[in-house]
Design a protein that fits this description.
Layout lengths: L1 H7 L4 H14 L1 H15 L1
Amino acid sequence: MPIVLKRLGHANTSTVLNIYTHALRSRDPEAAEKLDNIFSDAI
């Protein structure tokens, strides 16, 4: 995490987690649908 903190310019881990996990959570449905399509095609 220290490398991520430095690259993003944040001073502490909680800032990174608060900002970026929120952004990732909002993309969960889209990611799940894409994975479902990949796995469905493989069967």
